Amino acid sequence: MNTHLEHLDWPTIEAALMNDGFALLPRLLTRQTCQQLAALYADETRFRSRIVMQRYAFGQGEYQYFRYPLPALVDTLRSRLYEHLAPLANRWHAALKMNQRFPDTHVEFKALCHQAGQCRPTPLMLRYRQNDYTCLHQDVYGEQVFPFQVVFLLDRPGVDFEGGEFVLTHSGSSKPARAEVVPLEQGQALIFAVNSRPARSARGFCKVSVRHGVSRLHRGERHTLGIIFHDAK
Predict the structure, then answer these.
(1) pLDDT for position 201
(2) Per residue, what are the HEC states of the chain?
(3) 72: how many CB neighbours lie within 10 A of its CB?
(4) Model confidence over 34-92: pLDDT tens digits?
(5) How far apart are CA 17 and CA 24, in angstroms?
(6) What share of the chain in percent tops pLDDT 70?
(7) What pTM was estimated for this model as a whole?
């Protein structure tokens, strides 16, 4: 990784997450590392399942969930990002008066997932080709839900592909929904809310629903690495 996670400005990241529901990180992965990760997509032995999105009305394109053991870099990213995000997640839950709190390490959180019957790994690789897209959705797989997830863009926009913008929508009970298009460069990571986030209100905080998707790809091929911290049933 080009930038050590501990050297990032985490107070500023937390402020962005609280204000916007997402935070764009600096470039963390080199071009070579991105290419190596994207090349994993062709190795079926690395994955537990492959989803063709149009079969389930999820969009068009496909993605694959990694199997355990995860590739070393994916496992490292998942563990180290979790350690920085868990305190933020606990403050989000406190703001929303939610009782659940998250342990300090991902090993401990994964154990809670497995106790709840959520034993299947959820980090995934997505591949988009011309005209592919993902419908707006939320990645919730059981009762154990970590409120953040992270996506890394592995190809170069404007060079390897065109289109395929990352899209977030936010909707609350009292305000119309709004959409946000977040530009990413190769090797950059985006942290965003899995299903909801706190938003300041007259009475403190209210819950805002968040969904994410990817707009239609116009040309080329686009790979992304998705880091989801809770496992699935």
Answers:
(1) 80
(2) CCCCHHHCCHHHHHHHHHHHCEEECCCCCCHHHHHHHHHHHHCHHHEEEEEEHHHHCCEECEEEEECCCCCHHHHHHHHHHHHHHHHHHHHHHHHCCCCCCCCCCHHHHHHHHHHCCCCECCCEEEEEECCCEEEEECCCCCCCCCCEEEEEECCCECCCEEECCEEEEEECCCCCCEEEEECCCCCCEEEEECCEEEEEECCEEEEEEEEEEECCEEEEEEEEEEEECCCEC
(3) 8
(4) 999 999 999 999 999 999 999 999 999 999 999 999 999 999 999 999 999 999 999 99
(5) 9
(6) 97
(7) 0.94
Average predicted confidence (pLDDT) for the chain:
94
Q: Which of 198, 140, 134 is nearest to 172 (CA)?
A: 198
108-124: b (≥16 Cβ within 10 Å) or e: ebbebbeeeebebbbbb
